[in-house]
C-alpha cells in the first residue's frame, strides 16, 4: 500500500471541522429535517472542496489535484457524522 502524501492529510484534517461547521449551519436551517440538512451540507462540502481545486487550476495559484478534494470531502463527511453523533448523544429523541 502506498504511503499517503502529507498534503492529503492536511486536506483531510481541514475537512473535518469544515464538514462539522457546514452541517451545524445546515441543521440550524432545517432542524426537523435531518436528511435534508445532511444532503445540503454534503453538497456544499463537495462544492467547497472541489471549488478550491478549480480555483487553483484556473488561477494557477496552488496545485490542482482531485485527490486533494477527495481527501477534504472524506474528512468533511467524518465531520458531519461527528456532529450527528454528538447531537444524538446530547439530544436523544
Distance between the termini: 42 Å
What percentage of residues falls in helices of 4 or more residues?
A: over 70%
Which runs of at least 5 residues are low in confidence (pLDDT < 50)? Answer: none
Number of strands: 0
Please write the string of helix (H) and strand (E) elements. Answer: HHH
- Distinct helical segment count: 3
Which shape, going by the Cα principal axes? Answer: elongated
Structural class: mainly alpha
Total domain count? 1
Gyration radius, rounded: 15 Å
The pLDDT mean sits at 94
Give the strand content.
under 5%
Largest sheet geometry: none
Description:
The protein is mainly α and 93 residues long. It has one domain (6-87). 81% of the residues lie in helices and 0% in strands. It has 3 helices and no strands. Helix 1 (6-29) crosses helix 2 and helix 1 (6-29) crosses helix 3 (66-90). The longest helix is centred in the middle third of the chain and has 26 residues, at 34-59. It is elongated and about 45 Å long. It starts with 5 loop residues before the first helix and ends with a helix.
Amino acid at each position: 500500500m502506498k504511503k499517503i502524501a502529507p498534503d492529503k492529510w492536511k486536506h483531510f484534517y481541514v475537512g473535518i471541522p469544515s464538514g462539522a461547521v457546514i452541517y451545524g449551519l445546515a441543521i440550524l436551517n432545517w432542524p426537523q429535517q435531518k436528511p435534508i440538512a445532511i444532503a445540503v451540507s454534503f453538497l456544499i462540502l463537495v462544492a467547497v472542496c472541489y471549488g478550491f481545486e478549480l480555483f487553483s487550476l484556473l488561477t494557477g495559484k496552488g496545485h490542482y489535484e482531485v485527490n486533494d478534494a477527495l481527501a477534504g470531502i472524506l474528512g468533511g463527511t467524518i465531520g458531519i457524522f461527528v456532529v450527528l453523533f454528538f447531537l444524538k448523544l446530547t439530544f436523544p429523541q
